[in-house]
């Protein structure tokens, strides 16, 4: 249980003195229902998500097939409640038992359509709102976990030294990447904004003469409020990046000779290179070797706890699930195919 509790991630720390201390926290844990009361008690205002990989693993153990994966993934990634409900109905028609099993897990713990958006005003949301995230997996945490594999079986001081040195290198490596970036957005922010700009060309935005636009396209129709920076598809509020509907509205505003400015100015500051540079401006200080450390005045001699060596070689790597093994094999196959195509052309 201790290990599971430690696997949560804090995605954004509150910066405003007006914000309630944990309204801007998002915790992502393994799928363990027993964690619910503990987290509700400790962080009553925080959002608590289950990593959907772990929900799906449980689902696969019970229903012994991968056929539900597509339904489950579509349910989790739908950003509006009607979209979510329509996929749930499809799952119900396909297998009512799987549907009833999934129904028992409250959707606000795993489905984007039920992630909370606290206010309906962009500027209030900036001040009091939720963390800017639509994450469904705890990959971020897994990456750090895998980096600590070599350090975590060391004695506590050496283990902490390992983490400190890793963080020192990490800050430097991120700074190297940031210095190469052209900006003004991070590579992820730039990629998403460019993709949405391309898709926006397939949409037509109709201005209502106020602040709202009705945006119609080949796949759907939504309402964008440019003053509140909201779209009824909810992607804009969830990610902080203008969705294809918002981009179509911006194009329409420009066509109407309104002062629009650069599209990146509508992207949340968490994706700005300047914000990242500020975050990584705090460095981990190098320290001198142990021989140079001051001697402790503590009269007590600290004795290490008795150590019982377990039989066999200790396992360091996380056990990979069947699902992950299939994914790795698929990725290898795709990469081999790509190499083959590249060699042939
Ligand atoms: Zn939208």
From TrEMBL:
SWIM-type domain: residues covered: 213-254
Residue spans of biased composition, Basic residues class: 310-319
An example Gene Ontology molecular-function term: zinc ion binding
Residue segments, region Disordered: 298-321
InterPro entries in alphabetical order: Znf_PMZ, Znf_SWIM
PROSITE patterns tied to this protein: ZF_SWIM (PS50966)
Record has Electron transport as a keyword: no
Any single Pfam family the record assigns to this protein: SWIM
Record-linked PANTHER family: MULE TRANSPOSASE DOMAIN-CONTAINING PROTEIN, POLYPROTEIN, PUTATIVE-RELATED
Protein name: SWIM-type domain-containing protein
């Amino acid at each position: 249980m201790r290990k599971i509790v430690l696997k949560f991630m804090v995605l954004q720390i509150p910066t405003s003195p007006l914000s309630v201390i944990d309204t801007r926290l998002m915790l992502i844990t393994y799928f363990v229902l027993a964690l619910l009361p503990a987290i509700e008690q400790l962080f009553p205002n925080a959002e608590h998500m289950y990593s959907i990989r772990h929900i799906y693993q449980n689902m696969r153990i019970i229903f012994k097939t991968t056929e539900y994966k597509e339904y489950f993934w579509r349910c989790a990634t739908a950003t509006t409640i009607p979209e979510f409900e329509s996929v749930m109905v499809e799952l119900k028609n396909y297998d009512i038992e799987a549907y009833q099993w999934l129904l028992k897990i409250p959707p606000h713990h795993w489905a984007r359509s039920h992630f909370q958006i606290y206010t309906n005003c962009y500027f209030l949301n900036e001040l009091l709102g939720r963390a800017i995230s639509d994450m469904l997996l705890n990959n971020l945490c897994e990456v750090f976990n895998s980096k600590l594999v070599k350090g975590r079986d060391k004695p506590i001081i050496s283990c902490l030294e390992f983490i400190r040195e890793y963080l020192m290198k990490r800050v430097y490596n991120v700074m190297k990447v940031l210095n190469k970036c052209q900006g003004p957005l991070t590579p992820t922010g730039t990629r998403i904004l460019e993709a949405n700009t391309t898709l926006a060309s397939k949409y037509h935005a109709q201005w209502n003469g106020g602040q709202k636009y009705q945006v119609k396209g080949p796949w759907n129709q939504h309402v964008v409020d440019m003053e509140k920076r909201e779209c009824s598809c909810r992607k804009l509020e969830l990610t902080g990046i203008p969705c294809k509907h918002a981009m179509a509205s911006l194009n329409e505003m420009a066509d109407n000779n309104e002062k629009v400015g650069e599209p990146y100015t509508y992207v949340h500051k968490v994706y700005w290179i300047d914000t990242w540079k500020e975050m990584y401006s705090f460095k981990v200080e190098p320290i001198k070797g142990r021989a140079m450390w001051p001697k402790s005045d503590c009269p007590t001699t600290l004795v290490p706890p008795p150590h019982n060596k377990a039989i066999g070689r200790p396992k360091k790597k996380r056990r990979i699930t069947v699902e992950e093994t299939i994914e790795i094999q698929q990725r290898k196959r795709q990469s081999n195919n790509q190499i083959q195509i590249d060699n042939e052309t």
